[in-house]
Amino acid sequence: MPAPSGPDLPTFEWLGDAALNVRTPLARELYASLRAHPLPGVQEAVPALDLLTLLLDAPTAGEAVQETVAARLATLTPAPGGSGRRVVVPVTFGGPDLDWCAAHAGLDRAAFVAALCAAQLEVAFLGFTPGFAFLTGLPEPLRMPRLDAPRERVPAGSVALGGPWAGVYPRETPGGWRLVGRTAMNFFDLSRAAPVPWQPGDRVQFEARA
Amino acid sequence: MTAPLPRASRPVAGGPLATGATVLRAGVQTTVQDAGRRVRALGVPAGGAADPVARRLANALVGNAPDAAGLEVTLGGPTVLFHEAALVSLCGAPFDATLDGAPLPLWRAVPVQTGQTLTVGGTARGLRAFLAVRGALHGHEVFGSRATDLRAGFGGVQGRALRPGDHLTWSPLPAQAARRAFIAPDLRTPTGPHHELRVLGTGDLTADLRDSLLARPFTVSPQADRMGARLTESVAAPRDPTRPSVPNVPGLLQLPPDGRPILLLPDAGTHGGYPTPLVVITADLPRLGQLRPGDTLTLREVTREDAHAAHLAQERALRQAEWMLRQAVVSGK
After folding, report:
1. Helices A27-36 & A62-74 angle (0-180, nearest 10)
2. Which residues lie closer than 8 Å to A86 by C-beta, 6 or more apart?
3. Prediction pTM value
4. Crossing angle of helices A109-118/A98-105, nearest 10°?
5. ipTM value of the model?
6. Interface of B with A (CB under 8 A)
7. Which UniProt keywords apply (chain A) (predicted)?
């Protein structure tokens, strides 16, 4: 098929009869755009890495949505600055896997903590559990292999590293990432006007506390 | 620290319990549900009644909006004492239900008098039913929905399943007489014990998986809840530890490393990292809510055109039924 192709052109893939996967490096920008200006036929947009899943009002809405999304994407440009917001997460380092991770990175404990706090992280997308954010931007030496067998219980507030990601478990759940610290910050609190304090595109920085 | 059990004989007129209803027995797992929420982008599952057809028809029967909150009953139902008159309807699996001991018909609007006790027992087939109360049940509203999220612990009644002593209330609506209304049986969600679910393949569907998933019957395991229904038989699952997490959609069939497929229900997590070779078509999603441990099911691949046609036919029939029930409300017949 002589359709135009290139690394930046979106691809559309059906996921069942009522959802479309849109793969594009502009997934985050498209998500922000759809939030500001919803498209008819799209009930919900769910971001992942370079991917936006659109849940449609009706299975039959798909063909039209595909065209309008492609048109919308053509108006968007990369926003490398993200959302412009910055979230500082105070962390008490010392989780059960901290020493293992430092050794894996070839650093001593203090140097590992300093490197992690210096990392410019960014919220790629939210998912897994309410308020959980997949944080991207870990430098290569700080990327940790996941546990072979997930822990049945990871305490709420645990700061963790898994594969290319960093994250904070908002509540006690099972989890397979390496635990390096704790934060008292609550990432899902229904008593607040905005229960989830971060969103895709926010810059995130860990700050070591005693 | 349990609340004292109110008794049917206790005088309630004029007291704080003179409105609403009190839960005397909670049932196996009774939760407040509605149409669910749309905030997956915050990591929050959709939630909502697992059999949306039962929810819509039960609400229509009592003159509620289609997304109004009611009680989702699972396997064994609750016993509820009414402190005020109400109009209720119970739709879904064929549960045994009684009102002050007399059989309560399903798929009907039934008037309840002050002081009467509604008991929902068990069901021989299917798993869930939806009990609507005219005026819509109250409950903790989170992100635009009163649906109970059991895992995260919010929505509905304190984010949990009902307990004895819970007090249920609803919004007043002008009284409506229970009218004779008949809901065609073929509109109702089938309740097994054998299910055929129509599915569409995704990019993860290989020839091997097509052969192993579509060729044989599966059994619903005891691990069947509002998050997902696990199947007993395993297939050879592809393994890819580097696979990124991607958004889930309703009806997705997930294939974890042990090869025992999981069909995702409304409380499933928003994202998943396992291969997902199949998705149940929209028209068959309500059937997932009726999968009962021990039921068997087969997965039949259809085309997207088939899926669209099935959805349009189902939606047309449902809307017509809802419209007719509402017309009857307007004319007061």
Report:
1. 110
2. A202, A203, A204, A205
3. 0.91
4. 80
5. 0.91
6. 38, 40-44, 142, 152, 154, 200, 202-203, 241-242, 244-247, 249-252, 269-271, 279-282, 304, 307-308, 311-312, 315
7. ATP-binding, Hydrolase, Nucleotide-binding
Q: State the residue for tokens 């998500």.
A: A31
What is the distance in angstroms between the Cα of B197 and the nearest Cα belonging to chain A? 13
Residues of chain A whose beta carbon is less than 8 angstroms from a beta carbon of chain B are 13-19, 21, 31, 43-49, 51, 53, 55, 58-60, 125-134, 146, 163, 171, 188, 190, 195-196, 200
Residues B198, B246, single domain; the answer is yes
What token pair was written down for B75? 């396997």
**Nearest to B302, CA basis, from A19, A16, A66:** A16
CATH number at residue B214: 2.40.100.10
On whether the A11-75 domain is CATH 3.30.1360.40, my answer is: yes
Q: Is the model's pLDDT at A186 over the cut of 80?
A: yes
Q: Is the pLDDT of residue A125 over 80?
A: yes
What CATH number was assigned to the domain covering residues A86-208? 2.40.100.10
Q: What was the pLDDT predicted at B128? A: 98
Predicted pLDDT at B70: 98
Please tell me the predicted confidence (pLDDT) of residue B273: 85
* Size of the A and B interface in Cβ pairs below 8 Å: 114
Model pLDDT, residue B14: 45
Taking 70 as the threshold, does the pLDDT of residue A3 lie above it?
no
